[in-house]
Design a protein that fits this description.
362 residues; alpha+beta; Alpha-Beta Plaits; eight-stranded mixed beta sheet; 35% helix; globular
């Protein structure tokens, strides 16, 4: 029987660890050591913690913006968080008071830890996330093997695959992303409108309505969607290529290495071995590195980056108990810290002995 996660939101608890928190603690500690007064309060942007329970991240941001009467673009965040979970993360907003945020009464959302800063929260500001995860439906004969795999992960790391969340609820985000990279806006639009779960929250209907008014205007239709969504699709295709390359590297070496996330600025020769793998994958896909400079929608162009084959969870610990939902089965409780960009669901999969990437074919 398959393991189960996220049976209820409290089974998957995430707390974002952001640089602001780390730096401010040390600044105040140093001031106290030297007998100095507390730092002067900063201003401009209101930073606060949003606790989210069983709500979509972007839907939550849009709802907050609507209630405040501002554009969602004015709400800063460092990273997205899972829907079926209890998550805590730092947001920022300009031109809004603490009382206005406190007065928001929204299902599944709570706000705390208000402070003023001179800049907004930006993508990638966080160092990573602390996780507490209940894995249910574990067999009573499994704990010894699970513990051995977790000990190996603790000492030798885990394969840093992009998790299934990157590919969407139906696993097809990367398909639309490939069409965008190819400049095939018609098929990118049709993939989103197919009801495959790529757009979500009615985005496919925005495309359909635009095309009813202006048949064939696929660029105009796609521009009706939030830019952040279209970027996620391109990133999903890059993640698909990286996962496939990581699988190949695992077969040939399995040692720590940098694997490029392909983009128009990627220089494959900088990556002995793994660069050749990416080059071969791109050739089989009919994609050039220059294809990631998306001329029809330049805002989606991606320069590319790199990602380590292995990542190393910190403070990894676990214990077993009775599964309250399935009393004849067991529960595995995991706590750990992962750096930004790494997926907790991947740690769970690999603890279960699954070493193959979530996505391997289009």
């Amino acid at each position: 029987m398959a393991w189960q996660i996220k049976c209820k939101p409290g089974d998957f608890v995430v707390r974002e660890v952001i640089e602001d928190e780390v730096q401010s603690r040390w600044k105040e500690k140093i001031r106290r050591i030297h007998g100095k007064k507390a730092g002067e309060p900063e201003s401009g942007f209101l930073w606060f913690t949003m606790k989210k329970t069983d709500r979509d991240f972007f839907e939550s941001i849009d709802s907050i913006a609507s209630e405040l009467g501002i554009s969602s673009k004015k709400i800063g965040y460092s990273g997205t968080k899972d829907r079926r979970a209890v998550t805590c993360q730092t947001l920022s907003v300009e031109g809004v008071t603490e009382e206005e945020i406190k007065n928001l009464k929204m299902r599944g959302l709570g706000f705390s830890d208000f402070r003023r800063r001179n800049r907004p929260v930006k993508l990638g500001d966080h160092r990573g996330n602390d996780f507490t995860i209940n894995v249910r439906n574990v067999g009573k004969g499994e704990p010894d093997a699970i513990s051995r795999r977790l000990e190996r992960i603790k000492g030798q790391g885990m394969i840093n695959f992009f998790g299934g969340q990157r590919f969407g609820s139906k696993g097809s985000n990367h398909v639309a992303g490939k069409y965008l990279v190819m400049g095939d806006l018609e098929n990118a639009s049709k993939t989103i409108m197919s009801g495959s779960g790529v757009g979500g929250r009615g985005h496919e209907h925005l495309l359909a309505r635009h095309l009813e008014r202006k048949p064939g205007d696929y660029e105009g239709a796609l521009r009706r969607l939030p830019l952040r969504l279209l970027k996620l699709l391109v990133h999903a295709y890059q993640a698909h290529l990286w996962n496939a390359a990581a699988e190949e590297h695992m077969k040939s070496s399995g040692k720590q290495a940098l694997i490029p996330i392909p983009g128009y600025g990627t220089i494959l020769e900088k990556y002995p071995g793994t660069g050749r793998i990416i080059g071969s994958l791109l050739k089989s896909e009919g994609i050039l590195l220059s294809s990631f400079r998306i001329r029809k929608i330049p805002e989606l162009s991606s320069k590319g980056s790199e990602r380590e084959f292995l990542c190393f969870p910190k403070d990894l610990s676990w214990h077993f108990g009775m599964d309250e939902i399935n009393p004849d089965r067991m529960k595995l409780v995991l706590t750990f810290f992962l750096g930004k960009g790494s997926y907790a669901t991947e740690l769970v999969r690999q603890a279960a002995g699954e070493q193959k990437a979530v996505i391997s074919k289009i």
